[in-house]
Amino acid sequence: MFDFAWSHILLLLLVAVIFLGPKELPVVLQYLGKLFAKLRQHREELQEYVEAAIATPTSPQHNEQSLPTSAAHDTNK
User: pLDDT averaged over the chain?
Assistant: First the structure.
């Protein structure tokens, strides 16, 4: 997705030090680290939710297909 070379990363850090200063840069990087960690956690939770929703059948047709044939057609029970 992103194609960064080491020279690009170094240039971004240099620009960040110039604009933010050496005192504010660690604070900003720590904030960004926490933000990305929280985003990763939300992405994983969403992925688990979607996978669980896909794995759980909800249609009555699908439920009949998953039952053994004798139980699926026996309506007197």
Answer: 81
